[in-house]
Structures
1.
Amino acid sequence: MKPLIIANWKMNPQTLEEAKALFNAVKNTKAIICPPFVYLSDLRASGAQDCFYEEKGAYTGEVSPLMLKNMGIKYVIIGHSERRKYFRETNEIIEKKLKAALKMGLKPILCIDKTSQISPDIKRNLIIAYEPLFAIGTGKACSLERAKKMRLAIRKVVGSKTLILYGGSVNSQNARGYLAQAGFQGLLVGGASLKSKEFIDIIKRTCYAE
Ligand code: PGA
C-alpha cells in the first residue's frame, strides 16, 4: 500500500495567489493537502486542519464538521499540539471533535505525542499521527529507534487496522526512514510541505521509491 502523506500548511501562505500556486505545484502528488479554512473552497482541497464539535449555531469564528463535509472535505487534523498549546484544547475537547467528525463521515487524523492521548472510547476509524513535541517545527526530527518504539506502543493501543503516521521535522532526507525502517504508514508534513520542490521530493522518495 502506498503511504499516506498529509501536508499541514498551518497558517500559511498569506495570499490566495500563493496558496493556488503551491497547491497547483503539488496537487498531482495525491497527497492530502490541508490548507487554512479560507482557501479550502478555492483550492478544492481534501483536508482541513481542525473543526469544531457542534454542527451549527452561535459559535463565532468556528467551522463545523458538517460544513467541511458539505464542501467535499474528507480528512481533518484534530488535536494538533499547536491547538493544544495555543488554544488550550484538552483531551476532552479533542474527543468531542473526533466524535463529531466521525459522525459526519470525515476521517480524523488525531495528533498525539503520548499514548494516553488516545481515548479508549474512540480508537476506530481514526488515523493516528505520532508527533513528538520536540520535533515539531524545530528541525530536530525524532530518531528512528524512538519513533519505532512509539509506533509499536501506539499499535498495541489501537489494534491492527489503524494507520499510524509520523510527523515532526520531516524532510526529503529523512522521510523514507520513518516508513522503511521505523514502519510508519505515512507522514504528516508541516514546514517542508510549503516548499513545493522539497515536498515533491518527499513524495518521490516515499511513494515511488524502489
Ligand atoms: P513540521 O510540522 O513538519 O514543520 O515539524 C509537523 C506538524 O506540525 O504537523
Note: The chain has a mean pLDDT of 96.
2.
Amino acid sequence: MAVIGIDLGTTNSLGAYWKDGTVHLIPMEGERFLLPSVVGYVEGEGFLAGAAAKERLILYPEDTVASFKRFMGTEKEYHLGGKAYSPMELSAMVLEQIKRNAEFFLKEEIEEAVITVPAYFNDKQRSDTKKAAQIAGLKVDRLINEPSAAALAYRMEYGEEDRTLLVFDFGGGTLDLSYVECFDNVIEIIAVAGDNHLGGDDIDQAVSEYFCRENGLKSEELTKEDQAKLRKLSEVSKCALAEREEVTMELETGGRVCRVLLNEERLFEICMPLFGKIKQLFVHILEDAGSKVSGIDELIMVGGSSKLGVVKRFLRELLGKEPIVLGETDRVVACGAGVYAGIRQRREEIRDMLLTDVCPFTLGIGVNNRANRDKNILSPMIERNTTLPASHRERFVTVGDYQKEIRIQIYQGEEYYVDDDVLLGELTIEVALKPAGQAWVDVQFTYDINGILHVMAENEMGERRQILLANQTLSEAELEWYTREMEKIMLPPIQQPENQKMLAFFLDYYEKSTGHKRERIASMTGRILTGLSSGRKKEVKNAEKLGKMWMTQLQQAMDMQEELLFDGELKVGFGEELDDFEEESDEFGEESEEFI
Ligand code: ADP
Ligand code: MG
C-alpha cells in the first residue's frame, strides 16, 4: 500500500511520493504535474475534474466550478446539473481524480494520503478536508500545514541547519505568510498571516481592468464569454512575461480588436495596490512573531504567482535580501507533502520530523459584557499563533446573585463580540449558591496538535464537566451515502481520461498489427471494454488492472521489438491473470469479440 502526499490547492493540486531516497511528483495528465482544481459537469454524462474540466470553463461557465477551496468549511453551495454541491464534495472529486491518476501511474492501490492545508485553516475547514478525503477513499491521519511542507522541501535541498524561514506562498487565490523555525528535527510554525483573497487571480483581474481602461471598455458591459476570454488572456500574458520582455494582449470584442502592451514595468505598476497589501502582511507577521526582518534567515518563495519576476523584485526591495526559489515554485508544497509521506512510511533515509503547529485562531469563551448585557464578549483562552500543544486555565465568577449554573460557550475567532465569532460548542456546570461575583468555576482549554480541543470546567465543589471538540469525520452511513452518490455522478469509467488513453493505446496497436497479433489485441480490447462498461466496481477495477498490465507488457515488447509476448512464453503472469479475470466475470469471453 502506497502513501502519497497531496497539495490540494485552490487553483492547482499535485501528488507526490517518496521512493529510492527522494521525492517524485506524480504525472497527472501527460507530462503535466499540475491538476487544475476545477470540476465540470457534462450534460447527461457526469462530472469530471482536472484539465478537462478547466478547458470547459470558458464554453460552459455555468457548468464548471473553480476556486472552491476558498469556501471550504462554509455552507456555500454550487449548483451543477440541477443539484447543489458543497466545497467538500467538489474537493472530494479532485482528490479522487488524483488518487486515480496516482494509482494509474504507480500501479498500486493508494489508501493513505498526507494532505496539506493552509496553516490558517480552522477546525471546520480541516475536518471538511478530511471528510473530502474520506469520500475519495483516502485515509488521512494527518493534515500538514502548507508552510511546514515547504520547510521540509527546503531542508531536503539545503540541509538541516537551524534556520528561521519566512515562507511566502503566493498562489492563485491566496497569499500565506508563515514564520517558521527549523531546529534539529523540529519544524515549528511561530506565526502565520495571510489574505485568502489575494493571489494570481487578483493579478489577472487587475491586468484585465488595466486592459479595459486602456481601451475605454467597461468590463461589466462585455459578454460573459468575452469577460472569461479576457481573464484567460490576462493570465496567459502575465505568465508569458517569465520568458519575454513584453507581450501584446489582443482581444476581439464588440466588433473591434483591442490591444495593450504588457511589460514588467507596467505589471509592476498594476500590482502596486496588491504589493501594498503584501507589505502590511509582512508587518503583521513580524509583529506576531516578535521579530524583525533581520531575524529571517531565508525567504522561501512558494506558489505559482511567485514565478512572477515583479513579485521577486518587490520582495528583494522590501526585505533587502535575495529570496530563495526552490525549483518550480508551484511544486514545493507537494514535494514537502511527498517527503512527509516518506516519513509516514518510516523510510530509513529520512529523519522523522516533528511538525509542530500553531493555533491559527484565538479560542476563548463568551463572557458577560457590563456595557451591554445582550452582547457577550470574547475572553481569549488560547491566543492565535500559540504553539501547539497548548493549555490554559482561568477562573470565572458569576454575574448574578445566587445563580445556579454557568453556561460556558466556546468560540473561535478574533472578534470582540462573540456573535461575530464561530461557536464551537458549549457546556453547563452548576455553581455554589452565592452572591454575584463570589461563586466560581475554573475553565481549562487544552488544544493538541491534531486539532482536538478539550475544554474542562471545575466548580468549587470539585465537580467537573468536559467536552471534546475534535475535527469531525463522516459516519459510516454518511460515507456510504457519499460514495454511492459519487459513483453515480462521476464520469463513467470508460470515459475517464486515463482509460480513454489506455483504449487509444490498444486501438492504435490494433491498427498497427496484423493477423494473429491483431486478433489478440482485439480480444484484449474487447475484454477491457466489457469490464469498463460493466457497471460493477470489481469488474471495472479488474479491467483497469489488466489493461494496465497488458499495456506495460505490450509497451515492453514494442520497446524490445520482440514478438515473444504472442508466443505465450515470456509474459509474467499473463495467463494466470487472464484466467482470474475470466473467473471473476462470467460474462467475459465470448461476448468480448463483438466489441471490436
Ligand atoms: P494554488 O496554491 O492557489 O492552488 P498555485 O500555487 O498553483 O495555486 O498558483 C496558481 C497561480 O500561479 C495562478 O494564478 C497562475 O496564474 C499563477 N502562475 C502560474 N505560473 C505562472 C507564471 N509563470 N508566471 C506568473 N504566474 C504564474
Ligand atoms: Mg498552493
Note: The first strand starts at residue 2 and ends at 8.
